[in-house]
Amino acid sequence: MKIINLSNKSIFVFFLCLFVHSFSLAQDSKKAEKLLNEFMKAMTLTDYDESAKEVAKLCHKSLLNDNGELTKDIYSFSFKKAYNNSKYYQNPVKIVRVRAKESTYTGYGENKEEGKIIDYFIGRKNTKTGMPAPVQVFFPSNGDNPSLVYLGNL
Fold it and tell me: Are 138 and 116 in contact (CB under 8 A)?
């Protein structure tokens, strides 16, 4: 058995890196929770089209058309599913699980942007009626505000 000899400096650097990483994750989670609460607030609007307009303001540009509205596919499928199911999820949100994706970008072509995607699982109002749903949040590497990149699991 080989014994590794670590200096105090190495241990300090390790824990410092761990602290900085944890602090960064905590800041991301606060931003994500704020974004997800705005999303759920928009989903409670009774007017479907008005809700879609508010949700579009929270989405990444890759989900939007040239007019800044949800693309036809997002509007007809992902948004529709999320809108119809949002009533089953906690509002304000309760994040019950976080899972980082391996992707380092979102979008493509002109809309491609580097950053990280994280799944935030929103808890249901009644845990006996189903599982929490992941909503994907994109954090741009340039430090801009996060945005929604997939909401069809709600």
Answer: yes
pTM (2 decimals)?
0.83
Phi, psi for residue 84 in degrees, rounded to 5: -70, -30
Pairing between β-strand 133-140 and β-strand 147-150 as defined by DSSP bridges: antiparallel
Other CB atoms closer than 10 Å to residue 58's CB: what's the count?
19
Q: Do residues 142 and 28 touch, judged by C-beta distance below 8 A?
A: no
Distance of alpha carbon 101 from alpha carbon 138, whole angstroms: 10
* Residue 143: Cβ-neighbour burial (10 angstroms; 0-12, 13-18, 19+): exposed
Element (H, E) at 20: helix 8-43
Sequence-distant (6+) residues with CB within 8 A of 93 are: 33, 36, 37, 40, 120, 122, 123
Q: What is the pLDDT of residues 41-58, one digit of tens each?
A: 999 999 999 999 999 999
Helix axes 48-56, 8-43, angle to 10 degrees: 150
